[in-house]
Amino acid sequence: xxxxxxxxxxxxxxxxxxxxxxxxxxxxxxxxxxxxxxxxxxxxxxxxxxxxxxxxxxxxxxxxxxxxxxxxxxxxxxxxxxxxxxxxxxxxxxxxxxxxxxxxxxxxxxxxxxxxxxxxxxxxxxxxxxxxxxxxxxxxxxxxxxxxxxxxxxxxxxxxxxxxxxxxxxxxxxxxxxxxxxxxxxxxxxxxxxxxxxxxxxxxxxxxxxxxxxxxxxxxxxxxxxxxxxxxxxxxxxxxxxxxxxxxxxxxxxxxxxxxxxxxxxxxxxxxxxxxxxxxxxxxxxxxxxxxxxxxxxxxxxxxxxxxxxxxxxxxxxxxxxxxxxxxxxxxxxxxxxxxxxxxxxxxxxxxxxxxxxxxxxxxxxxxxxxxxxxxxxxxxxxxxxxxxxxxxxxxxxxxxxxxxxxxxxxxxxxxxxxxxxxxxxxxxxxxxxxxxxxxxxxxxxxxxxxxxxxxxxxxxxxxxxxxxxxxxxxxxxxxxxxxxxxxxxxxxxxxxxxxxxxxxxxxxxxxxxxxxxxxxxxxxxxxxxxxxxxxxxxxxxxxxxxxxxxxxxxxxxxxxxxxxxxxxxxxxxxxxxxxxxxxxxxxxxxxxxxxxxxxxxxxxxxxxxxxxxxxxxxxxxxxxxxxxxxxxxxxxxxxxxxxxxxxxxxxxxxxxxxxxxxxxxxxxxxxxxxxxxxxxxxxxxxxxxxxxxxxxxxxxxxxxxxxxxxxxxxxxxxxxxxxxxxxxxxxxxxxxxxxxxxxxxxxxxxxxxxxxxxxxxxxxxxxxxxxxxxxxxxxxxxxxxxxxxxxxxxxxxxxxxxxxxxxxxxxxxxxxxxxxxxxxxxxxxxxxxxxxxxxxxxxxxxxxxxxxxxxxxxxxxxxxxxxxxxxxxxxxxxxxxxxxxxxxxxxxxxxxxxxxxxxxxxxxxxxxxxxxxxxxxxxxxxxxxxxxxxxxxxxxxxxxxxxxxxxxxxxxxxxxxxxxxxxxxxxxxxxxxxxxxxxx
Length: 985
Fold this sequence. Notes:
Blueprint: H1 2-10, H2 14-42, H3 47-60, H4 62-79, H5 92-142, E1 146-150, E2 156-159, H6 161-165, H7 172-177, H8 180-184, E3 187-191, H9 203-208, E4 215-222, E5 228-239, E6 245-254, H10 256-278, E7 282-286, E8 292-295, H11 297-303, H12 307-310, H13 323-336, E9 339-347, E10 353-364, E11 370-379, H14 381-401, H15 406-420, E12 424-430, E13 436-443, H16 446-455, H17 469-476, E14 480-482, H18 489-493, H19 497-502, E15 510-518, E16 521-530, H20 539-584, H21 588-603, E17 607-614, E18 619-626, E19 636-638, H22 642-650, E20 654-656, H23 668-674, E21 678-686, E22 689-698, H24 706-770, H25 774-807, E23 817-820, H26 821-833, E24 840-845, E25 850-853, H27 855-871, E26 878-886, E27 893-900, H28 933-943, E28 947-953, E29 957-965
Parallel strand pairs: 24-26
Antiparallel strand pairs: 1-2, 1-6, 3-4, 4-5, 5-6, 7-8, 7-11, 9-10, 10-11, 12-13, 12-16, 14-15, 15-16, 17-18, 17-22, 18-19, 20-21, 21-22, 23-25, 26-27, 27-29, 28-29
Helix pairs in contact: 1-5, 2-3, 2-4, 3-4, 3-5, 4-5, 14-15, 14-20, 15-20, 20-21, 20-24, 21-24, 24-25, 26-27, 27-28
């Protein structure tokens, strides 16, 4: 009992135990007081002391209870048993009474102490249990997996924080406070495959039914967000002592990331499988010994073997000569890494060798050890073929563009073709007249080329033979492909057995014949022949050959056009030189000599002659000849005789290949003596008819062709115009001479009357101005006008004579003298003011400006310019005449300007203002004029060595600028260059 009491007491702290003993003392004291107070009523009793013992033992345990028992026995004996106030233990009755009380109180203390100890131990245990529960809760709340506990009624009795977060509850307490329907309503529960999961299959329910450790992968879809998560749910039943299930503990392990990773892996595997199945590249996996572990459909398509034919077996697509390379590549890939784009050969199931590119990478296990090779193979045969074709086309383009020499160009082409496409090649051309011409031929083996050239006539197209492929291509312009030439073709071409044996090396096995077509015309044909037993042409070779032929035809056509252009340029230059030479000769005989020189240059003839029709003599008179003296100048041939007569009669060219065999020749003996054969004659004609014949001769037969005929016709047209122009020139010179005679006569006849009229008008004008008679004074202005008009008429007569002289190439006879240009301008302006009406005319000059000029003609120039300015200016308009100098020394110039603000000259008319009789579009037919003023002024100024220019803008006026040299000169020549220096128009 002491041990238990002490043990129980030991459970508390020392202050608590001390308080129990104090309580025992206090309780005993209170019991003494209470008993003393109740003694008169009940007598001395132990009842109250029992209460004190019980209270001390209950609150303090066994020790305080025993203390209260001892104290209460002593107190009862001392205070309530007689003799009171003395401890008397001698009375047996009192001793029994005290012993009974003491035993009862001790028993009460013992029982109360034990109860207190048990209560304390229970409390401590409860506290420890509470602390353990809190620690477990903290631990479970820290676990990432959800943990719940269900009772047999499927009520949720425990949940950690992870279990609360899954359905979206803020805490485990909130989850525990929610109803089962509320919790389950937040989820759509499915199995791993996504099918609805029956509640009976939930591991927690299965555990409640007693199933040991059920496990299920459950898929949750949150209804509010649509988010899906996976959990592996495991459960375990907890049983009581009777073996009944009192709880089911369920653990939710979130495997969403793992499931997503597995799904992604499955998707990746499916995608990889689809890529492998759909890949255009052959994909195969090989083990270290080269056995096939993977074989996709493209591998079967490219190499021919099905998967069940190769899986588990050594790769069968390696040619014998590539076995060592294959094994080396396996080792290299597994030891060193990848192979990228290596080009090699593989063998198909049917035995065909194909060109491939391969990529390889090592396959490794989880520890990174190589366990095989993954290889990708691409069929690059078509690409390589296309690359070779492109290289061939590029090389062909270079060969065709390297030169415009047709023979060299085509020779390079056939050499290129036999080095890359055919065993031998033959080329046939049609010339510009459509005749067949043998082109170059070449053989792959140089030692057989001479044999090919000997045999080339055997392959020459025969239009009469329907079996002639080349003739068929030339006729239709369409290509022909013969993949397999019949074996007896050479026998059909060569009847002689000895020759057949000699030409057996040229036996064709396959051939292509393509036309050379440019601008819709067939220029020839290209034959490509394969004699190698392994080589066969197909449609792709045909397409390549057609492209080559197209480029060759274009180059050939361009070369021919270039030669034609060169010939045309040479012809044009010759005709141009002839035209210049002919035009430079004023004499007809000299012009004909130039024509003959050009005829020999254009045709390459040895002899040339011109015969003109002499109607009066009824003959063709030979007026010019070059080369051997066959026809002599002055010789005549009756009209209508010989080849010349036929050309004149028919008015068209005539070509004769051989004069000696020509019955129409006029003098065969002369022809034989000269030794000439070829003859070409063309008519010389103009709009009036045939004037004669231009003929060229050669000592060669058939020396002249269509081109020579065309060139000679061009020259004949030029010669006919030259002859007619020369004749017209002679007629024009006669007319000019007659006109000049007439003008001289008229000028002479009119000059004296005009001088007389001017003298009388001047005399009457002086008298009128001096007269005091009003009527006479009124006549003075009219007399002045008469005098001015007469002077103008005289100047116009002189201008006509000057123009006539200049027209026939005679310079003006300038009467030069020192002349003050400023004074001349003032005098002309004063005379103009007498007839200028309301126009304001003024002179701007700083002082005298003297030069060596013809004053009369300069006066005519200024008068013409001033008349134009006044005539084309509105009434009241201002006209300014300015005189100034520019430069110094030999480069000094006098500058005379006439400016008006009149109607101006249209821009389109400015380039022609100095042409005789030309007038502006805005004045022609509206304002009278001759169009001779500026033309005459220009001739006079240039005869002085000066220049004249016009600046004008329609509606704003015109400025005419005349520049005259100030240096004293003794003469000047027409067309003197304009001075260098400031220009103003």
